[in-house]
Specification:
2 domains; mainly alpha; AhpD-like
């Protein structure tokens, strides 16, 4: 059996965590329940990026999928392919995002979103050129929200891969 951090048993969970799992029965949430002090804040931050950000959802999902691809995060990839499709991302575009090396098969904006995800994921720091381009394209708020999204999903990717969170059985 592969090494992984086991999920806590239901009887070990606080009622609030059990209630959250009843609403969001995700292995990610169950894995985070091992750190209950951080769970609520983690969910709040993720929710702010996914549901309350002003950044366009389709563009956000392109960036998240690229982060998942370059970090080899199967759990994030699986869930965000489904989410991405609800925002209008096509199977053809998903294949473009999943390429090795820099993404060049999109339009200019799609390529830029993937470049930002690549630079943050692989180089940690955005190049001056990429930062200037997203500030010009999206303004200060949009650029900040895009960067925050890519950084957040690097955290999620690294957490799910390091703890060996598997995709939920259906």
């Amino acid at each position: 059996m592969a090494v992984r951090i086991p999920f806590p048993k239901d009887e070990e969970l606080d009622p609030e965590v059990r209630d959250l799992l009843a609403v969001l029965p995700l292995n990610l949430v169950r894995a985070l329940a091992n750190a209950p002090v951080s769970l609520r804040e983690f969910m709040d931050m993720g929710g702010s990026i996914l549901m309350r950000s002003a950044f366009d959802a389709r563009k956000r999902e392109i960036a998240i999928l690229r982060v998942a691809h370059v970090t080899k995060a199967a759990y994030v990839w699986h869930h965000h392919v489904a989410i991405g499709k609800t925002t209008g991302i096509t199977d053809d575009e998903i294949q473009k995002i999943a390429c090795d090396g820099p993404v060049q098969a999109f339009d200019g904006e799609g390529n830029l979103l993937c470049r930002v995800a690549d630079e943050i994921s692989l180089d940690v720091r955005l190049s001056d050129d990429a930062l200037s381009r997203i500030m010009e394209q999206y303004g200060n708020q949009g650029a900040t929200e895009l960067i925050l999204c890519c950084c957040w999903f690097n955290l999620v990717s690294r957490f799910t891969e390091s703890t060996r969170v598997e995709v939920e059985e259906t």
